[in-house]
Amino acid sequence: MMDRGKQIMVDFSWKNLADNLPWALPPDRTTIKVRNVKTLPDSWVPVLNKLKKSGFQLAVAWNRDDPACQPLFERADMICLNISGKSLPELSAICKDCADVDSAALAVRVDTQTTFDVCCQAGFSFFQGSFFKQPEDVSIKKVFPGTVSRFKLLEAIEQNDPDFTDLAALIQADVAISFRLLSYLNSASFGFRRKIESIKDAVTLLGWQNLKNWLRVILLSEVSECPHASELIFLSAQRGKFLEQVGKDHDFWGFEPDSLFLLGMFSLLDALLNQPMNQVVKYLPLADKLKGALCMESNNEYVPLLDLARWFEEARYAQIDDMISRLGLDRKKVNQAYGESIDWAGRLCELSS
User: Fold this and answer.
1) What is the Cα–Cα distance from 14 to 35, expressed in whole angstroms?
2) Which ranges of the chain have pLDDT less than 50?
3) Architecture of domain 145-352
4) Distance CA 268, CA 253 (A)
5) Angle at the Cα of 208 from the Cα atoms of 207 and 210, rounded to 5 degrees
């Protein structure tokens, strides 16, 4: 994710801070979110002062009423508030308190259009929640023919034993995809000695698995009708890689890692296309079980994995721990898979942009 040049927020425990873990990240692009403010030891002051002096920003959870938290609150660059159950006057007063100490206000658990509108009205500057991964509430519309043709290309690349001559011809027939692929391969990122001029050469030089992953991301970006497409595409790629790696690390389930990749990759298509998922899945080259999981059908064995990915994104630690235990997963391997999936998706999206 660092390759994407975006500002990031990372949740740290006191042990993480004491072990100097934040220093593995670029200070000018990192906001440190301090967990469990009430349990901080007396030695927190010099540690956090040093981090802020070096360029890190500091985010803390709202707890203005506790006098012990006041010094930390006043040092914060950002105040994070779970807005659940709070009225507009309450939220407005909190935003004013944040402004008085020159801190930005971040609304947590923004899950609907209504709560988003209320938070905007109250004066929040930043927002976090599942609302941003949901489709807009719009009337049902038909999928454009260009979108359908790209789903057909997606179906072709997902075949177990594709005919690369036919596949090259399909890609070549899509002018936008062909242009992006050839521009990608002829960029300085690769440094090939000769110019790549045909899709068939591209398949040979890039390798099929690498090309397939790139095409998956590009096809999502080409069909998207969402203004927040770049972030949703990154998250889609990251989910896909995370679920794929979890499947590889726990093969006793019998789930195919490549199917898990597609499950994660397509899990935000409703938001990308601004259409209900039960309409979108009609066009996808997936087994019925996977389509059911995307529609979040009850008693579907794939749904818990989608929940696990979502809870990681929303930092819901209690639910993460419970799900890891329920599914019999190796906690260390799952955490490692999530971290590696973020790095992988960042690199892929950077090259695909």
Assistant:
1) 7
2) 1-4, 137-143
3) Orthogonal Bundle (1.10)
4) 24
5) 70
